[in-house]
Amino acid sequence: LHAYRTCKSSEMAARGAVDMMEEYNVLGSGSNSTAPLLGILGPERTNEAIVVSRMIGSMPEDKRLLQISSSATGEALSDRTLYPNFFRVIPPDTTQVKVLLELLVQIKWNYVAIVYDDDAYGRQAATRLRALAQDRHICVPLFEALPLDHTSEVFDDRVKVITQQVTASTESDSRVKGIVFIGGAVTAKEFVERVDRSFVRFIFSEGLGLQGSVLKDVTRGKGALTASPPYLPLPEFKVYWSEMWNNRTLFSAEAARNPWLDSFDKQQTKCQQLPLDEACLGDTSQWLTEFYELKAVAVFVALLEKLHADACGNSGLCPGLKALLNRRSEILQTLQENVLDIDIGRNFPSSFGTFQGQTVAHNNSGEIVDQNQNGSVYDVYNFQECTGNKFCFRKNELSLTTSLIKGYGDRGEQLSWALFPKAQCQDDHDCTECVPEDISGEVAFVKGDFYFVAVAPVHNPDGSLQCGGLRTFTGTNLVEGILFALEQVNNKTGPSGIFSQIFGNKKLGVIVIDSCYNQLVIKERLIDLYKGNLRLPDGTNTSGIVDKIAGFVGAYFSDISVSMYEVLSKVKRPFVMVSPTNTSPVLSDRETYPFYLRLATPVVRAILSLIHELGSNYIQIIYDPDDVYSLTMKESLDQMSSSFNVCVAQGIETRAYVDSNLNKVRDAMRKYPSAKVVVVLLILQHVKNLTNVILPQMSDDDDFVFIGADGWAKRTEVLEVKNSKKLRGSLTVSLDLPLDQRYAEYLRKVDPLNTISPWLRNFWELRKACYFDGSFLRKDKTDLCPENLTSDYKQDPWTPFFIQTVYAFALGLDDAMAKHCGNRTAKLDLYGDASRENVFDDNGDGVVRIKIYEISPENPGSSAMEYIEVGRYDPDSLVLNNKAALWIVKEGTKGECDDRDCTKKCFQSPQQNPSSEGAQSSDNNDSSILIPTVIVIVLLVVVIIVLVIVVIVFYRRRIPKPRFCSSERRHVASDHMSVQEMHRSVSQISSGYRPRQETRPVPVSHSLPAFYRQNSPPAPHCDSHQGDNNYIQLEDPYDKVDKTPEVHRKRIASDPAVRPMPPVPVSDYVSERVSLSKDGVLSRDPRSGEISPGLQGYVLRESSGEGYPSGNTQSSDASPGDSGDGSKVFFSLPVEDSPIQFENDEIPTQPPRRCNPADPDYLTPSI
């Protein structure tokens, strides 16, 4: 053994390594040495070990000395490309950091300072701990480094700064009550002595080394926790060490051999002179590294034993061993590839009994691999006045025996675990630096084999690209509804066993995105999602799961859904999108939104039916022109009002979050006092703001009655505004589904501090005006949140819609993924009565029942209002329980057109005007002039219609009829699921879909046409352009050759004419000379009057069965369906914008079915 001192200096460590290599002739130069050098033990510190290993590791392989460290734990040393010769017998800092992190979580420290030695060990471990802490919602407001020289002024100044920041407590800044120190024992002692504050508690890294002497004289050291690799006592060494420090003769003899023992003694005992006085001798604590130093020595011994056995066998020292020791690359390889038995007590019975039965192995990074399954990787120690107690860290989980942990109060009194001091944000403070400014990127994530993306408005907008405050209604609760429904699907525990056979052994996952009710935010989030930039809670991003997304659920607001569709329509493949709550009429347009479905029923027709039934015909509308839902509802109501004999006096604009607009609403309503019925088409928050402003302004003469749309519905928040009694008699329409009691039980059990949703804790804190243990927002909150948070919680009425939408999506996805779907249908138990209901109609709109509510006093004479159910609206059918009892009828406030301006504006004929006295006074002379004029106009219209029919009949005779393949003909099938299939399956799940056999005109379009939804699934595109509606696959349906693969391949190889045609763009397949008439029926060329001449695309000839591209047909005199050479020409024309319809007698009675070669009855349409 040859020792070199480093004095904590990287330069001295490097100098010692150079001296050693020269002295032992490692490089083949210098003085000869008779003793071969096996390797290097140490250095102790990470920064020293890095310097030495980089220097030795950069040498040729046969010159690289083995280096084993017992205490250098730095993470950087795991890099084999930089440190190929480095091994260690102590776990690296990556393990230590995980232990420290789990320790912080379990003792509920989430507001801490990290102080560290300014060296490689301290910087690397501290930086990693801070990064991991942020992911676990642990705030680090103070992150400071200390210089290694604790005698310097810099050290003193830095400690003063840290002390000031820790102890400061102002209205805006909270005290830091917990400090994590990562560094060596000497620095730790100096730091703790100077930051001796009664409220500060410490956690130390393994650098402290279990040295009780460091903390025994420091009051604040009591109760400290330290993470450490497991320490095993070495009885033989302890006896030797104790005897040396208690026997002056033995100590003097040992000091003569060890030149540094004297200095160490003076540092520990403060005795300055030798010979030593007995008073200066005593029991000095053992250091943690002593065990690992001896373990490293044991590894060297075991390695030498292995090398000797390989080179010499059972004989003694042989020349082969000395030669092997000079082949240093083989030494490194032997250590890395073998499990070594370090039970060297077999050969030295009086020593090293601690290592009995132990083995050691290393991985490819030189890290020690635990071969002793009963041992712990890391322990946590509590510094107590009595003997320490340890708690083991096994399998990445920290198991704390809390009854053994002791804390100490400000006066040194011992505290139980229940009162163990916590390092958290101070009461009555908001630690805003710990709350992220931009939370729009946070998501709730459940891992699965495939995914759907759900969108909910967790936060309000703030007028910019960022989110505002968290919504305390209709937001976070919707997220929990989604997670509950997903749990039901994956656990196969849904209502009536509906999910018992779903997905096999696969799991459905979800990514829940916060839209913040901001169109720009949701667009940005979706773009990040598809770019793979959206960060997930597990630290990964969405790049690895984008291709597993099957569709979307949401959004809550119609305008957010429109914005989502704008983005989704531009990605490389379309997605099915199912909304639980959207009622905007614009989303019924299947040309614009072909793969969109919604659970909610459009309510405009229900509102107009209600108004008509009440006998009202003169109304006003309050709407928000900046909101898609509100604006499109208003437009639809304007368009449909005349068919219900209702006149819209005016539309009153009011913009959300602009109070100045709200103040003008009442005056605007008074401009049309006869229009007493005011329809409110606003979202809930806007309704609350509006009623809060205008109700106090309304006098007793303002006898207006409101009819609220589904944005108002049955929300109790509206009844809590000022002067809510003035809402008496108002009516609302509401889409109601029963509340799920299983969801209520689920919500009661969810732990807000340990849940999938990142927003639930803040949601409850705002709802209850309380704070949870560990909260960063405590200002103006004096109480901890109660355990039973849901005791007085009322479920959001929209939550069941989100739950049922997830159910419908899951069933639709399962059906679409099945290889053979057949004609089976599935329905949902929407109303909790074990009945199975349809959910979507043929257009993809919801058919959920609409209920009518009246606002009435809770008790006679009471000013408190409540909602009373007074009727319902099923599709095209309104039923009122007792119309005569309604306030609006009894008080005569239904609003009727009773002035000439109203009559002139809305009711042009006497038959339309209920108040027709004025209209009946029309002049008889005017009538005598009007009647002949009308007769002439009618005759002209009849003549024009007859001419049009004649022209259409003439053209139709020249249109070649489309043909369909028979069930015997070849078709190329695809195993891939198209988005059309997915859309069809989801819509079928709830619409009671069954294929019909009756004949209908066949629209051909790039979108999903009504024919396919109503009659049969569309044949998927069977080519490499699966799902791309701008391409079609042409086939040879009249090929009569043997269909066996071998024969067919030979036929293709010998005759190119029969090869299946490649996919071609639809735009290239339609002749420029073929036009469409206004009603979409195929017509003749307006220039030549011909159909078949001039067709471009693929022409199939019946006589040869060959398909090939063709420009013009061969003869301009050819009759329809004749190519000019005697063969029949037939074709189909998928077009991009307008559907082509064929007459009923030109399509088969059997509609096309999904192409499936295994099905003997499958048909291949030519459309």
TrEMBL record:
Record bears the keyword Glycoprotein: yes
Membrane-topology annotation of the record: Multi-pass membrane protein
Keywords: Glycoprotein, Membrane, Receptor, Transmembrane, Transmembrane helix
Receptor ligand binding region domain location: 5-194, 484-824
Coarse class of the protein's main subcellular location: membrane
Top-level division of the source organism's lineage: Eukaryota
Cell location: Membrane
Transmembrane residue ranges: 929-955
Disordered: annotated segments: 975-1044, 1079-1167
Cellular-component GO terms for this entry: membrane
A Pfam cross-reference name: ANF_receptor
Protein name per UniProt: Receptor ligand binding region domain-containing protein
